[in-house]
Amino acid sequence: MNPLYDYVFEIANRMYPTWDTDINGEQYQTDSFRGWDFVHQLEDERLEFSITKERYLENAPIIRSLRAMGLDTEKFWMAMLFVYDVVRERTENVQQVPTSVFEEFRAFARYLQENPDAKVRAWQGREHGVTLESYLAKRVLGKLLADNMAELYANLSNVRSFGMDGFSVNLKSCYKITLAIKCFLPLLEQFKEEDNRSTNPSKVSYNRMLLISRIVYFFGYTDNPKFLDSDEGIKGIWTSYKDREWTTIGKNFR
User: How far apart are CA 228 and CA 223, in angstroms?
Assistant: First the structure.
């Protein structure tokens, strides 16, 4: 894999994990399909963005912070394009999953988490069926359900009760900003810790949330200039929205 995509897969492997099985039947995590999907589309020039690398490199507050924290600015640009694409896919022209189905999956996920010894059975008649007993398999299934209920429902459903013409919902900017934080913050936390230096835009800031605040302004998720000088606005959004359930899916059923 091209090292230029290191940060892309740091994010993709956490946000969109992909699992495989070895010859012994043990599951292991491999590089995210969603990450590879982005790389292939990018290299085939099938993706378009309203942000440009020139404007990114000219954005002194962002570049100075990245360099001060020890991040590679070229790799981070790839990560920015990936996050921009993910947010666009998850928040623009999406469709609402029926609440009743969502509640069924949530209840099932909760039961699986609270009862780790429970067996999962898919059965038809007296002779046809399968039972899931492996602790690891049940734990993986429980986590997938808990973290990606709406997406998993859409991927597994053979009969989609919602039409392809129903993708017309656009989520408000608070959801865009929240998803961007979920992507960027764990990556930034691996690098240099925050210190007490000034958050003045003309000086270097080590404040991770302020850096993300400036990035979402760069993305166009807000036109409030206060996001360039303070992390108060983005922290307020993060506190209010980080634990909200997502019950929408994009056209790629993610």
Answer: 10
Q: How many angstroms separate the Cα of 202 from the Cα of each of 63, 65, 143, 198? A: 12, 11, 43, 9
CB distance 11 to 1 below 8 Å: no
What pairs with residue 120 in β-bridges?
Answer: 132
pTM for the structure as a whole: 0.73
191/45 Cα distance (integer angstroms): 31
Convert the pLDDT of each residue in 207-231 to its tens digit. Answer: 999 999 999 999 999 999 999 999 9
pLDDT at 251: 64
Q: Is 214 helix (H, G, I), strand (E, B) or coil?
A: helix
Nearest-5° Cα angle at 149, 170 to 109: 150
For residue range 56-92, list pLDDT tens digits in order: 999 999 999 999 999 999 999 999 999 999 999 999 9
Residue 249 is inside which H or E element, if any?
strand 248-249
Q: Which residues contact 221 (CB under 8 A, 6 or more apart)?
A: 87, 173, 176, 177, 180
